[in-house]
Predict the 3D structure of the following.
Amino acid sequence: MKIIISNTVILNGGDAAILISIIKILQDAFGKNCEFVIYDSQPETAIKYYPELNLRKLIYAQSVDSIRIKLIGRIIKLISQWRIKVAAWCISKHQFSLGRLCTNKVEYESLIDYQTANLIVSTGGTYLVENYSLKARFFDYQISLMFNKPLIFFTQSLGPFEQPTNRQILTKIFTRSALILLRDRQSAKHIQELSPQSKIAVVADAAFALSNLEALATAKNNQDNLGNLFTPKIAISVRDWSYFKTVDPAIGIARYIQALVALTVHLVDKYQAEITYISSCQGIKEYWKDDSEFALKITTQLPEQVAKFVTVNRDFHNPETLIKIIGEYDLVIATRLHMAILSLGAGVPVFAIAYEFKTEELFCKLGQSEWLIDIEEIDATTLIERVDSLISSLPQIHHQLFTNVEQESLSAWQTSNLVSQAFEQWQLDNQPEN
């Protein structure tokens, strides 16, 4: 069985965790012998970090990336996109020679990939939001549906969609999709506003499939009081953020940095903690974001007597390695959602700094809504008070927290049944007429 997984950005560690999980879940659904072709934003770089994957460049990027002319480049890009769509239409009608005339060798091979795929999966994550351009995503979905292939969206946080053009395009795409997996109720509402008849299911984030079940079993019975440990190990994950909605971005990010400086000082002074700044998105110089670079903006502001207890881990770690590293810590303060998920899956409690609704939705689902703070509202005093409160509560919450994480892991794996059922139903609904 040939499966395309599209729209990946696996230089982002969270996206890589999702992709690795999706592959495992799809192998559970369709067997270990599946052929996976991954369409990614930067495959030529990603292959250095994930050499085991079969990576190709996004079809949209193939059509526009080589066009550098400023004045008329926009028009040429539009023409190039239509050229690819015409070729896809020709190939879908088995007019292969005409399709080849419209494309170069790489483009043609990519279209043949789509034409010969049994299933197309749009990777999970948070990319169908209007903070980002949706052009490349729409292009991929339109090509997929031109070939009349079953299109499945893996676990998404998406919307809201307010721009009329986006709403119109997505309504058509969602309505024709075989299945849309969502990781929160708010995203489900956003889908239902556009396409009430869409086939949706709210399930756990795919990355929970990477959870270490032995570590979770141990964590459930952990009664240790972190405050009584001699030198507790605490990991802090940070990220740059510019999409503040209620405060000026410059003020918001400055307040975030100040709060983390104060928290770091507090954790060292009160608990004699060893602090490591480490994140799920770091150590890849070719990627536009490096959380370890941002961490230095915090650690360089620390007093000398505190700084000697603080390190910044700047290395790249693939998701499965990161889980092993984080498993050695007693607590994680996580800004990135997948740093939180991987840490929980390693049996480590998490205090979250929420920058999008997806984090709040997850922690509510886990029964941990009081152990987070909205990045829009962050300040040093509140952050310190809430982290202290979590630390004092850990012996009481461990069992229920990690029981809930086990349930999320089970939910992630159960999506294999949903996907296989949706695929079978799509085949029944699309049988060729005699």
About this structure: The chain has two domains: 2-202, 210-409. The chain has a mean pLDDT of 95.
